[in-house]
Amino acid sequence: MHIHHYKLIACYIIISIISIGSVSISGTLPELQPSPTPQEPPKITSIYPKYHKDGRIEAGKDIFFYTSFGSAGKNFTQFNNPQDIAIDKDGDIYIADTGNHRIQKFTSNGDFVRLVGTNTQFINPSGLSVDEEGKIYVIDTDNLIKLSPQGEILKTISINDPKGIAVEGNELYVTSEDEILCFDTVLLNLKWSLSDHREWNPFGIAARGGYIYVTDIKNNCICRILKRKKSTYWICSVQEGLNKPSGIAVADNCVFVTDTGNHSLWLFEKGIEEIGKFGNQGKGIGQFASPSKIAVKGNRLYVIDAGNCRIQVFDSNSR
């Protein structure tokens, strides 16, 4: 009897456990929600180009489109990967038509004048500058060439990997490898060379008022250099967002820089503090495709729009 009593108790416990396990749960489970996806930041639509009622087209703040000329090709007024531009004292324009191995001269309005020299004189001319007497200085592969205003070769010297060139007074400045070279403009004799204390890659160069302005495409910065005899004073400005700054030009109160990697132009004050920028990638007014060098004359800003094989000209009130 005693053993039978325990069997009854064990059966009761087993039945209770089974009953508890079979209890149903009423109600509805919440539906699983998909993980939230990150939202793209709202795209900011540029107000430029801005079309004014008086017919002016504003490409950027206080930058107004004037004209453009050129297209891809081999005929006159056409270009193949143009790389540099210079303006003489009369306002005439010289273009290093690099891929076509020639230099073309135009009026200030973009009308073709003539070729400078002959096609056989140049191999990939990539830089040029014109002095006050109209003499032309050309970077041509590993050569520095001086020409008369009529295009006759006056002097040629070898330079290893030259990139940018600028002239002021009787001094000619060239960026080459990791240094700046200074030549006299008469015989192209080397006067001095200057290198930074760090690794750098000086590219575009401009000279004005005793100062030298250089773009450094390795460190994505702009350098303003005062050279006086043996002393040198440097100011370097590293701008977040610059990507391969190539060309540089200096006006009275403003420095213009082509931001080749970002297809845009930057504006700085003389102390190389940023003022603004404009432009983006494209083929429209105020748009660029890998802009290269840049020149300024008066209120006019001339930009080599290399990827679009054209020159864009702007009127600038930012000076």
Write structural notes for this entry.
The chain is mainly beta and 319 residues long. The chain has one helix spanning 2-21, and strands at 50-51, 57-60, 63-69, 71-72, 78-79, 84-87, 93-97, 102-106, 112-116, 125-130, 136-140, 143-147, 153-158, 162-168, 171-176, 179-184, 190-195, 202-208, 211-216, 221-228, 231-238, 245-250, 254-259, 264-269, 274-278, 280-281, 287-288, 294-297, 300-305, 310-316. A six-stranded antiparallel sheet has the order 1-2-3-30-29-28, with no helix packed on it. A four-stranded antiparallel sheet has the order 6-7-8-9, with no helix packed on it. The protein has a four-stranded antiparallel sheet with strand order 10-11-12-13, with no helix packed on it. A hairpin with a 4-residue loop joins strand 19 (211-216) and strand 20 (221-228).
Alpha carbon gap, first and last residue: 115 Å
Major beta sheet, strand line-up: 1-2-3-30-29-28
Oligomer: single chain
Low-pLDDT stretches: 1-33
- State the major sheet: 6 strands, antiparallel
Helix content: under 10%
Please indicate the percent range of residues in DSSP E strands (runs of 2 or more): over 45%
Number of helices: 1
Count of distinct strands:
30
Global mean pLDDT = 87
Keywords:
4-stranded antiparallel sheet; single chain; mainly beta; 319 residues; 49% strand; 30 strands
Structure described in brief:
The protein has one helix at residues 2-21, and strands at residues 50-51, 57-60, 63-69, 71-72, 78-79, 84-87, 93-97, 102-106, 112-116, 125-130, 136-140, 143-147, 153-158, 162-168, 171-176, 179-184, 190-195, 202-208, 211-216, 221-228, 231-238, 245-250, 254-259, 264-269, 274-278, 280-281, 287-288, 294-297, 300-305, 310-316. It has 319 residues and is mainly beta.
